[in-house]
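Quick check before the chapter quiz. The format below is the same one you will see on the exam, so make sure you can read both the input and the output lines.
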Amino acid sequence: MCRLWGLRMTNITLPDWPWRTICRLADERRQPIWLVGGAVRDALLARPVHDWDFATEQEAMGLARAAADALGGAYFPLDKERDTGRIVLTASTGARLELDFAALREVDLEGDLRARDFTINAMALDAAGRLFDPTGGQSDLEANLIRAVSEGAFRSDPVRLLRAVRLEAQLGFEIEPQTAAWIHRDADKAAIPSAERMRDEFARMLISPKAVMPLQRLDEFGLLPYIAPELRPLKEVAQSPPHRFDVWRHTLLTVDALEGVVAAIVGQEVESRPLVNVPPAAWDNLARELGQFADDLTAHLSIEVSSGRDRTGLLKLAALLHDIGKPQTQSQDSEGRIHFYEHEPMGARMASARLKKLRFSRDEAKCVYTIIEQHLRPAHLSRAKKVTRRAVYRYFRVADRAGIDAALLSLADHLATWGPNLREQCWRRQIEVVKILLTHYFKRREETIAPPPLVTGNDLMITLELEEGPEIGRLLEELQESQAAGEVQTREEALALAAQTHASRLLDNPH
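Here is the expected output.
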């Protein structure tokens, strides 16, 4: 018989659904069932429980299938050899819930808990409300500490190296000294896990508030090169004024500023950000001028791109990687001024390649590629006397939806560059340009971004007596741009312009 340490009755508040249904099914099947891991931790912290993990002695997949039928969810076998299954549910609030069922990994519950990663994740709760805590997890919760269950915790599963940093940031806890020493010691083991598992931990880390903190911790522990080795060369790469720091420090400031930019626009409180250190009025300007787009931007950033990962995380990832092309493109002119010509396309290609190695989806890689490639375009537009409708159309023709993200990144990049030396007039112009871009994208989309075609390819072939071919596509694109610019408004005007354009092209290229 197993002796379970830390057994106590506790008052943990869990939603009746799905908890009671699972307990009833397990009782009917005469299967002991325990809620384990992060779900217990979050319940003790009075945090919402989104991912439920259940342990049972055997037939875990069978219980999962029965629970899926009872709860109206979708069942997925995860690992037949380890008897692990998953249910995906949609709560009444519309939130996605994942319920994982697994057989005990050891001979009994205590052995299973002692083989887990951290003490705060090594607790279990049974249907009677009894808490099993053999490693002192509840005490560490009260002390706000992340403590490895054993010295070999990271060697048995190196993904835990990243998880420790993520939990520290997510919960606002501190990694206790001995655990920190083990992370330093075992950092090189981060090369072992699959790219998918590393990706998942890193992606969850980035969406935490003040993501700069875990990024700095990854760097301190020597873990960052195993995720994105392209970041290491950014250190000590000098930049000319108005930049204040090397490229690595600037990168961290950009991630920090980006969170402030989004918070200010969507109406959230902009917490103190001593790292980027801009005048408080900068945030007020953002809220006043761009706050009208709060709902649009919230919806945009919440769009799922792949496997539960949304645009918020990808935007932060783009901010982290936006200057990785600078070391390869650094040059110095005769006056000693440092330049990074074409670092945007270089960095975009490098970032896309890194995301593919981390097994992000093709859509995610494309999104980050475009954000980085276009992140200086809004600043270039701000130097023009007037941002024309044609310029707006061309910007979104290349960037599409990622143009919104690139515009937000451009604001963060500007703040990170200038910091306390921010020039109000220049900053207001940056905001004005982004306001123009957002206005056309969200309010005037059919007028400027994607106007409904006035003519078809068939119309052009009949009217201009052309055969099907590349010229038809060129004419349609040119007509749409002219329509977006406000130069043509009717079918007749479009056909007349097409005829004029085609005739002019024939004169320039008679053969």
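If your answer matched, good. DSSP finds 25 helices and 14 strands in the chain.
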